[in-house]
Write a structure and sequence with these properties.
single chain, 2 domains, two-stranded antiparallel sheet, 10 helices, 2 strands, 2% strand
């Protein structure tokens, strides 16, 4: 039941004006029914994955064919890291370019070296040697790529604790470029076990690069730097051991399982 807003008289259903005082009455009508269109799957959800893969592949191709400054970056980050970190800080971080155009190429050095040493130079039966080399090389490669990504994640996760900037792009730049000497030293895997111990020395230099780069890339205060580096390294040692064990087990099952099917 409706009433006139002017005189309060009762209105008839559908009345356009009040019969008592003549006040016009606004007639409200329900909006027309609109059928909700059926849900259509968003096929563009897969587009970022495709674009990221293509970007990483293009970055790898450009770096492998000498179209980027990869070689100069390797030399500069090892020889003059203080200046090079400032150059890197002026660059826009790109995850796929860092992984595909730098980390993957350098991580292939220890991976290929491990394959050659344990798969070709090894002293076992031919089939076992090749399988061992493939397994060791793949473990080296996947551990390096997953490890550097997790290193960036740890660095970024701990950043607020040490009054540093939380920015994953910068953390990934820091992790990737600081890992350079370890990957380059992977060539030493071809030498004797004693000579291969030099890789540990290069690993210490990688920690030094991390410490030099944190104030530039993350804005870490000097009084927070030591704690930041030490906690990051402890976390990565634990994570690295777990990664190596898991990847080694998975790759071993795949390779030796396939070899059993083929009768090797």
């Amino acid at each position: 039941m409706k009433f006139c807003p002017n005189c309060g008289a009762e209105l008839k259903p559908g009345a356009k004006f009040c019969v008592a005082c003549g006040t016009p009455i606004a007639v409200t009508t329900a909006p027309p029914f609109q059928q909700t269109p059926p849900h259509r799957p968003n096929y563009q959800q897969q587009q970022p994955v495709y674009e990221n893969t293509r970007e990483a592949a293009n970055a790898f191709s450009d770096a492998a064919t000498g179209k980027t400054n990869l070689f100069r970056r390797v030399i500069n980050i090892i020889i003059k890291p203080h200046q090079e970190w400032y150059v890197i800080a002026g660059e826009q971080p790109g995850t796929m370019k860092l992984i595909g155009g730098y980390a993957l190429i350098l991580a292939l050095i220890p991976a290929v070296s491990a394959f050659v040493k344990y798969g070709i130079i090894g002293s076992y039966a031919i089939s076992e040697t090749i399988l061992t080399g493939i397994q060791t090389g793949l473990v080296q490669l996947f551990s390096a790529l997953i490890g550097v990504y997790l290193l960036a994640w740890v660095v970024d996760l701990l950043a607020p604790t040490f009054d540093s900037e939380k920015n994953f792009g910068r953390s990934l730049q820091l992790a990737v470029y600081a890992s350079t000497p370890q990957w380059v030293a992977g060539i030493l895997l071809l030498l004797s076990t004693t000579m291969s111990m030099l890789i540990m020395v290069f690993g210490l230099y990688a920690i030094y690069l991390l410490a030099v780069g944190m104030p530039v890339m993350k804005g870490t205060p000097k009084d927070k730097l030591v704690g930041y580096v030490l906690l990051t390294i402890v976390a990565m040692i634990v994570i690295g051991l777990v990664i190596a064990l898991v990847i080694g087990a998975i790759v071993g099952l795949i390779i030796y399982g396939r070899a059993g099917v083929l009768g090797l």
